[in-house]
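Input chain follows. Return structure tokens only.
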Amino acid sequence: MTDHEAKYRALNTKFHIRWERQSPRLVGVQSAEKLAELYKADEHLNNIPLRVWDSMGASIQAYNRGTAALSQAELVCMCKQAAKDMLLREGLI
């Protein structure tokens, strides 16, 4: 695990951010399997538009005031790490 992964996993744990198998729909992806395909093509998931990730980050910030000190970039990284962790748990990557 890289320092980057550890940081965002810790933040996701702190703020109770966890993706489930149906969560890819939140970023316009129809299934966990399709998300896995996108991940395999680009491990940073930059093939999903940044505006979509920004929207997810804003939703987290609106829901959890404790995240107010986090930057938009950190919120996006949290979302992407949660997505990757779901793919790992499901055995899709």
